[in-house]
């Protein structure tokens, strides 16, 4: 029997490769909105983060999300994403 390949994704905060299902997907929609994608199946460009506030802070500090999406991200988007991350962490 063949072994099923586990999809890995790199965290834009810490840079670690982890199982896709363990991570949180940040999604940029076609309209340019940013949101957290809990299902991992919504349409749009995605970047992955560990479900840890420390990784989120690292991604903000080293501009990991900006590099992933190849655009500047407004401060309001970071604030909204931080609130959503805090809700998931509870």
Automatic annotation (TrEMBL):
Transmembrane segment boundaries: none
Domain of life where this protein originates: Bacteria
Instruction: Give every YlxR domain span.
Output: 9-83
Instruction: Write down the Gene3D superfamilies for this protein, in alphabetical order.
Output: YlxR-like
> What Pfam families does the entry give?
YlxR
The record's annotation in InterPro entries points to:
YlxR, YlxR-like_sf, YlxR_dom
This chain's protein is named: YlxR family protein
Taxonomy, top ranks, is: Bacteria, Bacillati, Bacillota, Clostridia, Lachnospirales
């Amino acid at each position: 029997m063949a072994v099923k390949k586990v999809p890995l994704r790199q965290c834009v905060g810490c840079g670690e490769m982890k199982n896709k299902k363990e991570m949180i997907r940040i999604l940029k929609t076609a309209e340019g909105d940013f949101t957290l994608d809990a299902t991992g199946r919504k349409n749009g460009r995605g970047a992955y983060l560990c479900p840890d506030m420390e990784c989120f802070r690292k991604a903000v500090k080293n501009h990991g999300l900006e590099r992933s999406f190849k655009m500047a991200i407004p401060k309001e988007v970071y604030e909204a994403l931080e609130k959503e991350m805090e809700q998931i962490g509870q």
